[in-house]
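Q: what does this look like with magnesium ion bound?
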Amino acid sequence: MRQGDTIVVATKNAGKVREFAHAFGKLGLQVVSMFDYPNLPDVEEDGLTFAENARKKAKTIADALGQPVLADDSGLEVAALDGAPGVYSARYSGAGATDERNNAKLVEALSAAADKRPDAKDTLADGARLLSDARFVCALALYDPASGKYTEAEGYVAGRIIDKPRGSGGFGYDPLFWLPQYGRAMAELTTEEKQAISHRGGALQQLLGRMELASNG
Ligand SMILES: O=P(O)(O)OP(=O)(O)OP(=O)(O)OC[C@H]1O[C@@H](n2cnc3c(O)ncnc32)[C@H](O)[C@@H]1O
Ligand SMILES: [Mg+2]
């Protein structure tokens, strides 16, 4: 990849587009997404893992466009929910799910059980309760239809779920994702700060290293 090149990201999530545009922009690369192509096929995200879904999104769109495509499948794994919502994070609150409804459902699901668990006793200065340990996961897959090869990476960030949203940055579950070591919720970080510590930022850094190796070798 060279300065000025365009990267196609197979996503319809505006928050992801913003983060990829920020990261690739620093490398002099443009980002386009599924918003820029009206007639792409729908991808059913029926994989059992983030990596499986990322590969499927990348390959489906890359085959349709006849060029390399990057895809991101990500989500939230909550300890007190045995890893749910996981690969179902986008659809957690059912048909017509929105970030707001997903967040409301998460707090509801955790609040009921929280009183019984020792790890749910802590509160923040503003009285918000820490409901469970959790982590964000991001799987990235870049598929090149010319070679039939995937380049893949995965990133993680650990935090705790709070019962009152904080901040207006990021997207998705970010307002409920407390980062104890920073004393802020993920939605209270700038895009730059989020990139430096997030599951997506970590996965992207790893992917870039692997792409460089792939193109040198
Ligand atoms: O599949 P595409 O079109 O990329 O967009 P999507 O929003 O459906 O994306 P996923 O299928 O990967 O689902 C990811 C879910 O996890 C949430 N999520 C992923 N990354 C996140 C992040 O950085 N911050 C907050 N929530 C995140 C997000 O809100 C979704 O509900
Ligand atoms: Mg999706």
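The chain has a mean pLDDT of 95. The helical segments are 14-25, 50-65, 99-114, 191-197, 199-216.
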